[in-house]
Structure formats: C-alpha cells, structure tokens
C-alpha cells in the first residue's frame, strides 16, 4: 500500500527536525532555544532561589513556577493551562527535595507556534534545567500525536492502526494539521522509563486509537531523548574543552 | 565504572549495595541514578565505607543551597542591641547568585560571657564576617553564629581613614594608616 505523505513530505510516523541552542541567555541560570520544524520556544530557568513571598515557600522541597508567554497577544486561559501541564510535568522530573525552601522559576517564551508547542516546551525545559545544573530524577521528554481527517472514532479498524504510515495517525503535527485534527494526544515521559509523566488529550477518539497514539508518541519520545542526550552531552564536552 | 562516559539524569550508575550516592546522584530502590549531566566519577569512601559515585556537573545548582553547618561569608547590614542583620554572600567556595538574609543573635556572637556582649563593639555595618549556619531559622532569615575562634569579622573598614583594618586580637582591629583601634569580634586570620 502506498504510504500516505503529509503536506510537508513526512510520513505519519516522522517527527520534524530538532535544533537547540543551549546557554544563550547570560542572565538566566539555564536557557535554551529549542525547535522542532518551525515551532520554536525559548526557555529560561532561574533558581533555585528564595521565593519573593515567604508564604509560597515549602519547608521540605522546591516549588516550580512556570510562566508561559505566547508569541502573540496577552496571556489566555489556554496559556494558563499549558503552564499547569508544564509545571506538573517538571515537578515529577526535578529532584525538588534537594532544594528546600526554594523556588525554581521557568519562563517559556513561544517564538513561533507551528504545532506541537506544548511538547516542544517540555523538551526545551528539560534542556534548560540541565543547563542550570538543577538535579533531575530523569530527563522529561514529550511528543504529540494527532488523528487527521474526519470520521467517527469507531470507524478506524484496528488493523489500520498498526501501519502508522497508512493510517491517519500523525506524529509531531504542524499547526495546519492540528487545526484540522479530530483528536490530539500529547505524551510526556521520563526518558528510558516505562511510566507516563503527563498525557493531554483533546478531541474524540476511541480506546484503541488512544493506545496507538500513545505508543507512537512514546516512540517519538525515544527519538527525541536520543537527540536531547547528544545535545546536552556535546555541550558539556564543549564547555570542558573551552575551559582547557 | 567508566569515567569517560557522560551520564544524563535518570541513567543507572550502579547498585546501592556497592556504592554510596554522592553529589549529582540519587538512590531509588536498589540502584543509584544520575541527577545531572556530566562525567561519572568514583571516589574513595570515607573510613572504609563503600566507594562514592558522583556526577560532576559543570554547574550544580546544589551549590546555591545553604545547609546547617555551612561556613558562609556575610556582609553586616544592620546592628541592633540584640542582633546583627547580615546578607549572606558566599556559601563555602561558591558565590551565591542571590544574597540570603541572616541574623547573628547576641548570644551567638562569641562563646564566652555571652550576656556581656555589646553588639556595637562586635560588628559594624559593612563588615564582612565569616559565620557558620546554626539553624535554618525562620521567615527567610538564617541563624548564624560566630562563636568560634575562626569565625567573626574578616574584613572591616576603618572609621577614621577608610583603610582596611588589620586584626590585632580577637577583640580589636587596627587601622594601618592612623593606628586607631576599633572593637570587633575578629576571626582568627588563616594561617598562610
């Protein structure tokens, strides 16, 4: 069967090319400009530091504050929701017990939103936290999958779902694909582990489709984690070489 | 354990029964995992204990955390009858990115005759003191103590001339320009 190509030439199981510039902000403790295809975000990490308000402080762990700044316009409730997803994900990944009475501030500035921006932001946060030297339990990685086209959820036959290239399952959707999708699944995991940190679903989809989408997203997470790992290791080696 | 390999957070480094978890690592269940990106190092354990496995991150945010028992350098900001307020500038070898607040209470200035301490004769605003964190304190100020011979004022400017004074005893500093002596609770100078 012919593999169905998307508008940009990708098959359903391909993610877009990734790039990362680490440590680009001088004043932030950690920073990265990270992108997937045309989607790019700039993340800055400040801390751990004393909270400005003492009532926010927790005696046994750090609190993580996330600020999501959209590329255009004032902050909307969708941005506040993304802050919540990012914060909950990072709270599981960061070793918060190591930094009692502190706040770790994460600022996500969307530079260009061409789809899958929440998963891009989570990946960027992982790299910025590494850049800041914040200890983590593991590297959080995220990926998005969506179902293109219309049609009811029940109509998707199970055998179709196994051949990702032929089904309507699309990994790392761009903005135009997200606009016409009937369901999206964003998955965040700790690289190398079996569990799930965060799953965000929108739209309508059946149980089989959900499992297929999360399996596909997990494979994408594996690919992203390979990239993240190489990028952070390369930076460490570069820094060591620069010091010598 | 190969030390040329770089570890990433979440990488399994060894068994907790064979190694001790050092900086940059954590223990979960029977294994030790990395929590930073960096080379994996193995060091001798203390006193016949298990070898310590650590990950040396280029920048470790843990350095910015103050714990009880740490020796810190602080600048005196206010001197009152019962306490002196300081801002903590350095924790050990690390310069802190953001200063923390601390206080030295009258009874923590020195070890002897604590009820006869005169705060104005122990510290002045602007002095740099070496102190030890005695408790995490309250409402965002750490409690510090200078009640030891190696703790106290390390650097102070003379009122008379503005020159940096030299300690002459644990209770006095002298201006090298005018010879005027001023009372301070001095730290013993490091033997060099």
TrEMBL record, chain A:
GO terms for biological process: nuclear mRNA surveillance; poly(A)-dependent snoRNA 3'-end processing; rRNA catabolic process; rRNA processing; U4 snRNA 3'-end processing. GO terms for cellular component: cytoplasmic exosome (RNase complex); nuclear exosome (RNase complex); nucleolus; ribosome. Residues 14-135, 139-220 form the Exoribonuclease phosphorolytic domain. Pfam families: RNase_PH (PF01138), RNase_PH_C (PF03725). SUPFAM superfamilies: Ribonuclease PH domain 2-like, Ribosomal protein S5 domain 2-like. Keywords: Exosome, Nucleus, Ribonucleoprotein, Ribosomal protein, rRNA processing. It is found in: Nucleus. GO terms for molecular function: RNA binding. InterPro entries: ExoRNase_PH_dom1, ExoRNase_PH_dom2, ExoRNase_PH_dom2_sf, PNPase/RNase_PH_dom_sf, Ribosomal_Su5_D2-typ_SF, RNase_PH. It comes from the Eukaryota. Transmembrane segments: none annotated. Belongs to the RNase PH family. This is Ribosomal protein S5 domain 2-type protein.
UniProtKB/TrEMBL annotation, chain B:
Residues 96-136 form the Exosome complex component CSL4 C-terminal domain. Its main location: nucleus. It comes from the Eukaryota. It is found in: Nucleus, Nucleolus. Keywords: Cytoplasm, Exosome. Gene3D superfamilies: 2.40.50.100, Nucleic acid-binding proteins. Transmembrane segments: none annotated. GO terms for molecular function: RNA binding. GO terms for biological process: RNA processing. Residues 6-40 form the Exosome complex component N-terminal domain. Residues 1-24 are annotated as: Disordered. This is S1 motif domain-containing protein. It comes from Tribonema minus.
